[in-house]
Amino acid sequence: MPFIIWMAPSWQAEAQATLFGGIKGEELEKLLVCMDSTRKKYRRQEMILSEEEIPDRIGIVLEGSVIAEKDCEICWMHIGKVLSVCPAACPCHQQMLRNLVTSLAGKNVAFSEKITCLSRRSTREKLLSYLSETAKKEKKRHFVIPFNRQELADYLCVDRSAMSAELSKLRREGVLDYKRSEFWLL
Question: Cα angle vertex 29, ends 25, 33, to 5°?
Answer without folding.
Answer: 170
